[in-house]
Here is the input.
Amino acid sequence: MARLDDSEIDERLEGLDGWTRDGDSIVKEYKCDDFKGSVAFVNKVLPVAEGMDHHPDVAISWDTVTLTESTHSEGGLTANDFELASRVDSA
Here is the structure.
């Protein structure tokens, strides 16, 4: 899958709520009630990511889960990153 150029990235970001660009990645924080809620949220992300065979970087800090999307094999952002972000938001 090909890397997206800056204009494609900007255009796709407009269609996502709360996602921001951080270099060659897109990032979003999800607020959960507590650590248990954060782990439950990650467990909802798991089948979505596995179904696409495309996995975000996940950071849990008690009541916050931060997902970072990038296609490591391409060295930047691809359509898969935006598709996974959209699916996670819908889950």
Observations:
- The domain at 6-90 is CATH 3.30.1360.20 (Gyrase A; domain 2).
- Residues 14 and 20 are 10 Å apart (CA to CA).
